[in-house]
Every structure is written in C-alpha cells, then in structure tokens.
C-alpha cells in the first residue's frame, strides 16, 4: 500500500499513512505477543525499516513525526498497561493478574530505598515465560 501511493504523496503524508495503516496493525495487542521469539519481532522491525526507506525522511526528522523503534513502543505500551492495572483503570480480569505489593522481610538500606509502590517480582524458570508481559515489565 505504502509503496503504491508513495509517488503521489509527500514524505509527511507517507509517514501518516504508515502510522495509521501499517504500524497500527503491527502493534495491535502488542502486550500479548511481546514475548515472541526474537526472529518474529525482528521481522516486524524489518517491515518498519522498509517503510522508513519508502517514507524517505532523514533519520533526525523521524523523531519529529513520531516514528520510534517498535521495541520502544512495545515497552512503553507494557508500562502503560501496568500503570493502568496498578491504579485499577484496566479491566477487572487484568487487575486480578497483578502481583501482591512487595513486602520488606527485614530493614536494610536497600529495602528502605525502594519505592513504596513496589510489586513482588514474578518468578519464572523458563526463558520463554520471562519474556511475557508481567515478568518482563516488572
């Protein structure tokens, strides 16, 4: 789509088409599949690199039109969802997945310096599970 319409549009219009049509579908439910293997995620990054070549803007102006790396956008989306879950703004079934608040077992310099809203880390024994939403975000 982007390649077909690119001769008729200026670079900022191409960027708008990319963000609205292509990137939105690549980011749909990104917190669910953020734990996918690196090769699957790299294929999405390759699509974005091709789109940036088609858009044909200098690298420094990509930040001005808000085209960030997809990994950064996935991380920000996960942190946003965690924030919504912590403040009970997410759906109830997601709020119930949130781990308990972190309990200091004894007073140490590290425990007194931790934030009062810290959560108990999610323990995981497999590498695949460590890449999923809660273990990776916490």
Could you explain the architecture of this structure?
The protein is mainly alpha-helical. Helix content is 56%, strand content 0%. It is built from nine helices and no strands. The longest helix has 18 residues. It is elongated, with a radius of gyration of 19 Å.
Would you kindly provide a brief summary of this structure?
This protein is 56% helix and 0% strand.
Features of the shown structure:
single chain; about 140 residues; mainly alpha; about 55% helix
Map the helices and strands.
Layout: H1 2-5, H2 11-26, H3 30-33, H4 38-55, H5 70-86, H6 92-95, H7 109-113, H8 127-130, H9 133-137
Give the termini separation: 38 Å
Q: What is the helix tally?
A: 9
Q: Would you identify the regions where 5 or more consecutive residues have pLDDT less than 50?
A: none
Radius of gyration: 19 Å
Q: Structural class of the helices, strands and pairings? A: mainly alpha
Note the overall shape. Answer: elongated
For the sheet with most strands, the description reads: none
Mean pLDDT: 82
Helix coverage percent: 55-70%
**How many beta strands in the DSSP annotation?**
0
- Strand fraction: under 5%
Question: What is the N-to-C succession of helices and strands?
Answer: HHHHHHHHH
């Amino acid at each position: 789509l982007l390649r077909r319409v690119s001769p008729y549009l200026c670079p900022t219009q191409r960027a708008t088409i990319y963000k609205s049509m292509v990137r939105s579908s690549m980011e749909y439910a990104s917190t669910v599949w953020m734990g996918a293997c690196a090769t699957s995620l790299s294929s999405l990054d390759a699509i974005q690199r091709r789109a940036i070549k088609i858009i044909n803007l200098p690298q420094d102006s990509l930040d001005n039109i808000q085209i960030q790396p997809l990994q950064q956008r996935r991380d920000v989306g996960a942190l946003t969802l965690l924030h919504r879950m912590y403040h009970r703004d997410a759906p109830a079934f997601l709020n119930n997945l949130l781990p308990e608040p972190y309990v200091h077992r004894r007073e140490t310099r590290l425990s007194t310096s931790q934030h009062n809203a810290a959560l108990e880390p999610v323990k995981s024994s497999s590498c695949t599970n460590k890449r999923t939403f809660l273990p990776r975000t916490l």
